[in-house]
Amino acid sequence: MSLGTDITPDEDQAAAFRAALDNDDGQPVILLNLLHFDDAEGQAIYTGGYGAPVLQILADVGAKQIFAANVNRTLIGDQEANQWDQLWLTWCPNRDAVRQMVERRTTASPTSSPRRA
Q: Could you please report the per-residue DSSP string of 7-46?
């Protein structure tokens, strides 16, 4: 059983992300999470074991999941490279809430997480 493969930003991408968070303009932020699971068991574990704590973290920082759906197919693009199983849209009140969420999610992550983009 495997939940999936985590996509980790390179050093430049991580620095750009931190810089964007440092320039909080007070405006809401919408995050798009694309999730891929290696198998149905991994999806069940992620949704049941990891999803619930993440929803609590969102609530704690004033954010909320505004949409979640299973993905059936990629309409445009490489079908093999873009095999996503779920997508989540998350509303955050500002960039500081995103920072808090990321810091908290790091400690809540399972040892094996799905591939995210």
A: ----HHHHHHHHHHHHS--S--EEEEEEEE-SSHHHHHHI
Give the pTM: 0.75
The strand pairing partners of 91, in sequence order, are 30, 64
| 90 burial type by CB count under 10 A (0-12 exposed, 13-18 middle, 19+ buried) | buried
Q: Specify the 3-state DSSP secondary structure of 87.
A: strand
CA distance 62 to 76: 34
Q: Which two three-digit tokens encode residue 54?
A: 């993440």
Strand 115-116 and strand 64-70: pairing? unpaired
> In this predicted model, what pLDDT tens digit does every residue of 68-81 receive, in sequence order?
998 888 788 777 77
pLDDT of residue 115: 52
11-116, what's its fold?
Alpha-Beta Plaits (3.30.70)
31: β partners = 90
